[in-house]
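ok new one. same drill as before - structure tokens go in, u give me an amino acid for every spot. 293 of them this time. try not to just spam alanines like last time pls lmao
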């Protein structure tokens, strides 16, 4: 049987206990629940600091750690199921359950409840924190650091328009595997924006094309598209901002851009990467469905 290594916590020597009936390994472990304690943590295919990474996990994300060796933990992200290696220093087995998420595209951490203090780091949209109290305009975190309270939202709060969230990342640099306001890739932009709207989404563009929404037929004239439609190529995805313009993180401009879909289609085809492979349309969410992500 063939398994997707991105989503299957199985190696020849070790596998998730839940896979005992479906994969062969030397031993099986249940894994240890932990949370990401760093503002953002790269998840790599192999346990080496000089290896490019597949994705990022944000502060507060739940993970299951199956192994730890020489500073790297082999984990599976609970939110989207991605498997890989993360720095052990980025994980905490005793971190409290988050109460809020970052709703601003980026917010600073401070050693006290004042904007005049030197910042001690930053968190990006979607990071989750446990608020232990408030002092003036600032929320106190278990670490003793503070964040501007109005940059936070309750975990179950959801943005009404995921495209509007994506548009806030316009001009953000392109970063392969990235999911933060400092840099993200095409499918990272889609995943982070959908999650802000309470819509769970897989990580990579092929997964998104397979699992999100329903197919929309599109002809050579590109007519009939709507705001929010996801447009796919092999290895690439963007979202329609209006019936004519695509918002996408791309390596051509090395940033998030908004440009005519027809121009993007012709450029990608002209560079030998093929045509549009599909368009997917997400159904509108009812009020009761929002906030479940």
């Amino acid at each position: 049987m063939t398994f997707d290594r991105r989503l299957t916590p199985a190696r020849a020597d070790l596998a998730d206990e839940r896979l005992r009936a479906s994969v062969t390994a030397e031993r099986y472990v249940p894994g240890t629940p932990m949370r990401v304690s760093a503002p953002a943590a790269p998840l790599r295919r192999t346990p080496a600091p000089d290896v490019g990474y597949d994705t990022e996990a944000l502060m507060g994300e739940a993970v299951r750690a199956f192994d730890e060796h020489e500073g790297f933990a082999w984990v599976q992200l609970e939110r989207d199921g991605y498997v890989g290696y993360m720095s052990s220093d980025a994980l905490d087995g005793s971190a409290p359950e988050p109460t809020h998420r970052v709703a601003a595209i980026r917010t600073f951490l401070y050693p006290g409840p004042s904007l005049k203090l030197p910042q001690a780091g930053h968190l990006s949209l979607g990071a989750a924190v446990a608020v232990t109290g408030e002092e003036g305009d600032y929320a106190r975190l278990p670490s003793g650091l503070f964040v501007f309270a109005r940059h936070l939202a309750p975990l179950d709060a959801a943005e009404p328009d995921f495209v509007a969230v994506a548009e806030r990342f316009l001009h953000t640099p392109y970063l392969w595997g990235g999911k933060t306001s400092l840099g993200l890739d095409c499918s990272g932009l889609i995943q982070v924006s959908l999650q802000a709207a309470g819509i769970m989404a897989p990580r990579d563009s092929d997964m998104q094309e397979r699992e999100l929404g329903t197919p929309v037929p599109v002809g050579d004239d590109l007519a009939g598209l709507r705001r929010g439609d996801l447009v796919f190529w092999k290895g690439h995805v963007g979202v329609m901002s209006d019936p004519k313009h695509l918002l996408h993180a791309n390596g051509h401009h090395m940033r998030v851009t908004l440009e005519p879909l027809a121009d993007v289609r012709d450029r990608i085809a002209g560079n030998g990467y093929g045509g549009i492979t599909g368009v997917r349309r997400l159904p509108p969410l009812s009020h009761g469905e929002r906030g479940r992500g």
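Helices lie at 162-167, 186-196, 205-211, 261-270. and btw Residues 287-293 have pLDDT under 50 and may be disordered.
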